[in-house]
């Protein structure tokens, strides 16, 4: 195909298409041109509307005609050095001082918008006012949506918007959209009340909802299959009532937005509210109020119709009682004519407050979601005294009206309800049986029998057929007492239901006779399911038996442990002398026999002519503690015969505790005295250190390294040496002598040193003095061993 060129060698001239393809191309170009012209016409019309708004402001401010206002507008714009539209927007902002003005004021100076592009504040203000003017002259909500999208939101990077209206049942209806495919708009034309969407969240929360990414939120919405970026939904409020929701879509996730952008969105939502309020669907028309009055008059309960009462600024201030039906009963005793026309808070000032009636009415009016409560307190003032009644209440919105219906709970209803709950909790089923006639059961009795409420009641005479064979005689005597002797009677029996379940039942009945007492008319009574009580008594009886057996076993264990302990550790042991040592021992068992512990002591002369002195404390009480004490005490005595030192002896004793016993843990102090050198070698295993009294001054020996017995398999113990002098006294003791529950061990040891400083006549007196002045409160065993060098 040859492509012609211009004579001067310019670009090639594209030959126009020919044939069928040429016709389609021309048609597409024509459609595009006409669409562009339509958009330009709309923009010019919206701009012209903004200009007319500014002229109107100047007419009012300057007191001139429209022609003079137009000339002044042009002159002032030229003098200010701004464009005509920018100056018109400024004039409207100064006059309106509304939410759009606040949004425009936020944009003074440069700012960064949601798409990151910088835009002069005046240009943004023109966009907002142009969008407003377009919305005001639009004939329907669809045109408003298109104007808002084109002038205010598309420059912010938005790709689509939707305007929803809220119906009386809190459902959402798509009233206008831009940027969505027609099929998608038709598919989302109606959203039922129970569907959770971003618009529903804004409606429930009554505040703007900013979702950074619709896909991550998991909420379905219009265009959600194709547009999964950011979503913003803002409630459109008018007079305190949410009449709709503005939803805006962005193609990508958004970071947190500055307050300027948020206020722009809220201002645009307010424009939508104005449009939805001035062009409502048919269900919002005034005929709804008349139909609502007719509906209220047909109700059998008290009801009144409320309409919103707005403040001078257009905000919801109260509700006016528009109509009260003929069933209306005022808590304060006023006729319905006296409250009709009053404001709700004037008629019932105590209805204010969080969770009270006014709060519920306001929420229903705002969101359209009905409210219902089975028990709600209603309070009125009667001669300045608050009178409260409990009522079942329901609140619904119909257009901009609210219907409140309530039923006050009277005393009879309250007592019947209370009796029903008492019977349910007590598992009591009542009955009345006329002789040869009707049998009446309550619902609980059907449940006790395992029958459906539609089944026929079982007559009292058939009761033997439903009881355990062993209880037939009991039921026969009960029936003879009531039916034959006409006296009240009761019986407890096992009831066998048709489904195989056996329940323990107590039945009580009384006859109803005629005035002469000759003829039985009916029998009234009740059944009570006492199965839980029966099995509780059985379980308690078994528990008492087990407890008695356990107590007996525990007593035997404590007795055996006490006998074993006293056989090895007598309460009194005589003092004795060994070489140049005087040895005295005191042992005080726990005050409570069941706390028999494992404290032990030993003082013996070994074959090597050394003196072994030791004390120890087994963890735990009872037979285990006593037997553990015997094992370690005897093991230490046997190991000491080897001639090993105290550290080695404790190392071996640790192996015995860890490997050769049933998990015994113990602390101990072991000392060996050599008479020839007067050297005392000692070691400790987690036990308090001995106390040395020299020249009347007590002091605790330095703490040596050593872990408690049985804690680990291999342990090393440090050994210390002490050369005793004449009149030195050394005390070995268990923690039962010093330990207090609320005091640390160092402070307890300090108290012991204070007691040891007392002057005494002999070693025996010193040990008796220490036991008598002990400040311990743990009720534990106590061992004290004292040695004194003469």
Structure description:
The protein has 22 helices and 29 strands. It has 790 residues and is an alpha+beta fold. The strands form six sheets. A six-stranded antiparallel β-sheet has the order 5-4-3-8-7-6. Strands 19-20-29-28-25-26 form a six-stranded antiparallel β-sheet, with helices on one face. It has a five-stranded antiparallel β-sheet with strand order 10-9-13-12-11, with helices on both faces. Strand 17 (502-513) and strand 18 form a beta hairpin. Helix 1 crosses helix 5, helix 4 (99-105) runs antiparallel to helix 5 and helix 5 runs parallel beside helix 10 (259-278). The radius of gyration is 49 Å and the shape is flat. It holds the Pfam family PAS_3. Residues 1-21 are annotated as: Disordered. This is PAS domain-containing protein.
Number of discrete domains: 4
Q: Rounded to an integer, what's the Rg over CA atoms?
A: 49 Å
Low-pLDDT runs: 1-16, 103-122, 282-287
User: Helical region count?
Assistant: 22
What is the correct CATH architecture of the largest domain?
4-Layer Sandwich
Question: Into which percent range does the helicity of residues fall?
Answer: 25-40%
Strand count, sense and barrel status of the largest sheet are:
6 strands, antiparallel
Shape: flat
Strand content: 25-35%
Strand order of the largest sheet: 5-4-3-8-7-6
Superfamily (CATH H level) name of the largest domain:
PPM-type phosphatase domain
Q: What is the CATH third-level topology name of the largest domain? A: Phosphatase 2c, domain 1
- Number of distinct beta strands: 29
Taking the alpha carbons of the first and last residues, their distance comes to: 137 Å
Pfam families: ANTAR, GAF_2, PAS_3, SpoIIE
Keywords: Hydrolase, Transcription, Transcription regulation
Protein name: PAS domain-containing protein
InterPro entries: ANTAR, Bact_Sigma-Reg, GAF, GAF-like_dom_sf, PAS, PAS-like_dom_sf, PAS_fold_3, PPM-type-like_dom_sf
């Amino acid at each position: 195909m040859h492509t012609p060129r211009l004579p001067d060698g310019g670009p090639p001239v594209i030959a126009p298409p020919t044939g069928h393809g040429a016709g389609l191309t021309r048609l597409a170009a024509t459609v595009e041109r006409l669409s562009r012209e339509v958009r330009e016409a709309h923009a010019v019309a919206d701009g012209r509307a903004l200009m007319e708004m500014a002229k109107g402001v100047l007419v009012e401010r300057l007191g001139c005609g429209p022609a003079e206002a137009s000339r002044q507008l042009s002159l002032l714009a030229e003098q200010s050095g701004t464009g005509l539209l920018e100056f018109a927007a400024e004039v409207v902002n100064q006059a309106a001082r509304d939410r759009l003005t606040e949004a425009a004021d936020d944009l003074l100076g440069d700012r960064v918008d949601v798409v990151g592009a910088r835009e002069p504040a005046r240009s943004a203000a023109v966009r907002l006012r142009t969008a407003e003017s377009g919305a005001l002259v639009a004939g329907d909500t669809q045109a408003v949506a298109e104007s808002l999208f084109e002038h205010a939101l598309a420059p912010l990077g938005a790709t689509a918007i939707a305007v929803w209206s809220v119906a009386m049942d809190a459902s959402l209806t798509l009233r206008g959209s831009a940027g969505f495919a027609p099929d998608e708009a038709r598919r989302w034309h109606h959203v039922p009340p129970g569907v959770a969407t971003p618009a529903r969240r804004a409606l429930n929360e009554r505040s703007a909802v900013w979702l950074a990414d619709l896909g991550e939120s998991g909420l379905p919405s219009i265009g959600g299959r194709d547009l999964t970026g950011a979503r913003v939904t803002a409630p459109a409020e008018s007079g305190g009532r949410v009449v709709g929701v503005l939803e805006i879509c962005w193609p990508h996730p958004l970071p947190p937005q500055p307050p300027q952008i948020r206020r722009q969105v809220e201002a645009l939502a307010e424009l939508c509210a104005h449009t939805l309020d001035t062009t409502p669907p048919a269900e919002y028309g005034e005929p709804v109020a008349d139909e609502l009055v007719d509906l209220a008059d047909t109700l059998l309960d008290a009801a009144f119709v409320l309409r919103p009462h707005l403040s001078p600024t257009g905000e919801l201030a109260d509700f006016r009682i528009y109509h009260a039906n003929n069933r209306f009963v005022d808590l304060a005793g006023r006729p319905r004519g006296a409250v009709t026309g009053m404001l709700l808070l004037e008629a019932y000032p105590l209805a204010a407050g969080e969770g009270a009636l006014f709060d519920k009415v306001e929420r229903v009016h705002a969101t359209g979601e009905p409210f219902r409560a089975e028990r709600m307190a209603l309070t009125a003032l009667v001669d300045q005294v608050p009178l409260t009644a409990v009522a079942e209440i329901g609140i619904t919105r119909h257009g901009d009206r609210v219907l409140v219906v309530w039923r006050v709970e009277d005393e009879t209803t309250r007592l019947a309800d209370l009796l029903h709950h008492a019977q349910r909790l007590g598992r009591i089923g009542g009955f009345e049986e006329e002789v040869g006639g009707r049998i009446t059961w309550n619902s609980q009795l059907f449940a006790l029998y395992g029958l459906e409420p539609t089944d026929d009641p079982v007559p009292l005479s058939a009761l033997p057929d439903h009881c355990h064979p062993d209880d037939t005689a009991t039921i026969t005597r009960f029936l003879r007492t009531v039916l034959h002797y006409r006296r009240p009677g009761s019986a407890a029996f096992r009831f066998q239901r048709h489904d195989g379940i056996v329940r323990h039942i107590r039945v009580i009945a009384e006859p109803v006779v005629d005035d002469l007492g000759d003829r039985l008319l009916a029998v009234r009574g009740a059944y009570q399911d006492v199965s839980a009580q029966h099995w509780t008594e059985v379980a308690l009886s078994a528990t008492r038996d087990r407890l008695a057996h356990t107590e007996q076993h525990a007593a035997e264990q404590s007795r055996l442990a006490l006998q074993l302990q006293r056989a090895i550790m007598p309460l009194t042991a005589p003092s004795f002398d060994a070489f140049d040592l005087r040895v005295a021992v005191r042992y005080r068992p726990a005050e409570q026999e069941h706390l028999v512990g494992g404290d032990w002591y030993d003082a013996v002369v070994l074959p090597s002519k050394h003196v072994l002195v030791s004390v120890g404390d087994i963890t735990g009480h009872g037979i285990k503690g006593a037997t553990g004490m015997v094992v370690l005490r005897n093991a230490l005595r046997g190991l000491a015969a080897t001639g090993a030192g105290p550290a080695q002896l404790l190392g071996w004793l640790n192996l015995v505790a860890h490997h050769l016993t049933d998990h015994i843990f113990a602390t101990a102090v072991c000392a060996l005295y050599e008479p020839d050198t007067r050297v005392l070698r000692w070691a400790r295993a987690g036990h308090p250190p001995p106390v040395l009294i020299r020249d009347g001054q007590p002091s605790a020996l330095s703490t040596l390294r050593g872990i408690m017995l049985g804690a680990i398999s291999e342990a090393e113990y440090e050994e210390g040496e002490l050369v005793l002098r004449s009149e030195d006294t050394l005390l070995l003791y268990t923690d039962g002598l010093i330990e207090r529950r609320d005091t640390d061990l160092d402070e307890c040891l300090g108290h012991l040193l204070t007691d040891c400083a007392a002057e005494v006549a002999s070693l025996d007196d010193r040990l008796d003095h220490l036991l008598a002045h002990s400040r311990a409160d743990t009720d534990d065993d106590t061992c004290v061993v004292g040695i004194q060098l003469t």
